[in-house]
């Protein structure tokens, strides 16, 4: 039986996730992608199936790709690392996922090639954004 009140237990859980759990990285080509374990909804492993799927079909390099519900953007950054897109746009509603994407952009010096948005679906994405390829691993 949990002796903490539900609100205190919830607050403690959020605090642990945000501040106590370490940042991790995974490499795709020359890119290091930052994430925390609880942010990985499978994009780091089964999301990588996009790469051989697109390569096997001879897809040419796309000018701009978008990863919807990106989390740490494992798929999008992998597309960039495998030279399947020139520029990338990623968006997520989760603050920590957005922070992970921004860390990845900073670490890899990608600010001229990657746009990161904190957005509920497409709500905060500028109407001027256009993509040639849209990928996603939506929450399930």
Structural overview:
With 140 residues, this protein is of the alpha/beta class. β4, α4 (95-107) and β5 form a beta-alpha-beta unit. The model has no long low-confidence stretch (mean pLDDT 91). The strands form 2 sheets. A 4-stranded parallel beta sheet has the order 5-4-3-6, covered by helices on one side. It is globular, with a radius of gyration of 16 Å. The longest helix has 15 residues, at 6-20. It has helices spanning 6-20, 50-56, 74-81, 95-107; strands at 24-28, 31-35, 62-68, 85-92, 114-118, 133-136. Helices cover 31% and strands 24% of the residues.
Write a short abstract of this structure.
The protein is of the alpha/beta class and 140 residues long.
SSE layout and pairings?
Elements: H1 6-20, E1 24-28, E2 31-35, H2 50-56, E3 62-68, H3 74-81, E4 85-92, H4 95-107, E5 114-118, E6 133-136
Parallel strand pairs: 3-4, 3-6, 4-5
Antiparallel strand pairs: 1-2
Proportion of beta-strand residues: 15-25%
* Mean pLDDT score: 91
Note the run of SSEs as H and E.
HEEHEHEHEE
Low-confidence stretches: none
- What is the overall number of helices? 4
Largest sheet: 4 strands, parallel
Fraction of helical residues: 25-40%
Query: Would you report the number of β strands?
Result: 6
Rg of Cα set: 16 Å
